[in-house]
Amino acid sequence: MGIFTKDIKSMEDLLVHGLQDIYYAEQQIIKSLPKMIDKATNRDLVMGLKNHLEETNRQVERLQKVFEKLGQQPSGTKCPAIDGIIQEADETAGEIEDKAVLDAGIVANAQAVEHYEMCRYGTLIAWAEELGHDDIVRYLTTNLNEEKAANTKLNSVALRKGINRKAARVG
């Protein structure tokens, strides 16, 4: 089911499609985070990414509960947006030789992922509320709050823990 196909006839269909999109995205993120962790050298960044990997696994579990509450089988639908963000992150990481600059790039790429997720979850919450699915709003809100917190932690690592400062000294 694509976003502009005739398979989407109602807002309920749109909600399910959006859930399939974020479900797929979270699974792709679970696959890509270990690569980021392996390339990162700043210990605060590594720890933050490891923690978020654990959170992402719990987010997938919450999404599975959301699908169950809607009487749907948990399933994903290909999401070109997250695929593109992850592909860009992989390509960028492959082009950066200096480890300090690479850490700054990893933060930026991770934040691009977080912003995509925050956008998706915010929309899904609004749709679920409009459709009267109060029973799933709390799961989606928990995921959204974790994404916001992860983004804040990435900002802190970049700015307060000195990743950006260290990268700026290179070259």
Molecular structure report:
The protein has 171 residues and is mainly alpha-helical. It has a single domain, classed as Ferritin. The chain contains 6 helices and no strands. It has helices spanning 11-39, 43-69, 80-95, 99-130, 134-159, 163-168. The model has no long low-confidence stretch (mean pLDDT 93). This is Ferritin-like domain-containing protein. Keywords: Coiled coil. It comes from Bradyrhizobium uaiense. Residues 46-73 form a coiled coil.
CATH superfamily label: Ferritin, core subunit, four-helix bundle
Secondary-structure element order, as H and E? HHHHHH
C-alpha Rg (nearest Å)? 17 Å
Supply the number of structural domains: 1
How many DSSP H or I helices?
Answer: 6
CATH names the topology as: Ferritin
List the helices and strands and how they pair.
Layout: H1 11-39, H2 43-69, H3 80-95, H4 99-130, H5 134-159, H6 163-168
Protein name: Ferritin-like domain-containing protein
Keywords: Coiled coil
Pfam family, one: DUF892
